[in-house]
């Protein structure tokens, strides 16, 4: 009962787990060494891509291939550039919309506060009026 030596079946499992761990370690190290370097586009490539983006933000595959050939890029690079550009454009649009909404909200909130103060002032004036008028002027006209 005190024997802790692996049985044939547990030995296979441990061996299998060790092998899987070794493969995972190898795969992680390989992926690190195979990381692709980021490619910076030239100014001319960016200019061409920007011009194309203005006319076609979602180019079809043949257009991407033609553009990639003209610019000396891989079609996948062109596709990713367009995807990133669309995402950046959308973010800028959302930020602009947010700023406009915030300005409008702040303006409305300010107007609301002014109207609230004006309303309070008018209510206090209305409350003051009956005490300054002779009783005969409003007797029977208002239920106070």
From TrEMBL:
Basic and acidic residues bias locations: 32-42
Family statement drawn from the similarity comment of this UniProt entry: Belongs to the HD-ZIP homeobox family. Class I subfamily.
This protein's name: Homeobox-leucine zipper protein
DNA-binding residues: 34-93
Known function: Transcription factor.
Residue stretches of biased makeup (Polar residues): 1-13
Organism: Escallonia herrerae
Location within or outside the cell: Nucleus
InterPro entries, per database record: HD, HDZip_class_I_plant, Homeobox_CS, Homeodomain-like_sf, Leu_zip_homeo
An annotated Gene Ontology molecular function: DNA-binding transcription factor activity, RNA polymerase II-specific
GO cellular component, one term: nucleus
Domain Homeobox: 32-92
Key words, A-Z: DNA-binding, Homeobox, Nucleus, Transcription, Transcription regulation
Pfam families: HALZ (PF02183), Homeodomain (PF00046)
SMART domains: HOX (SM00389)
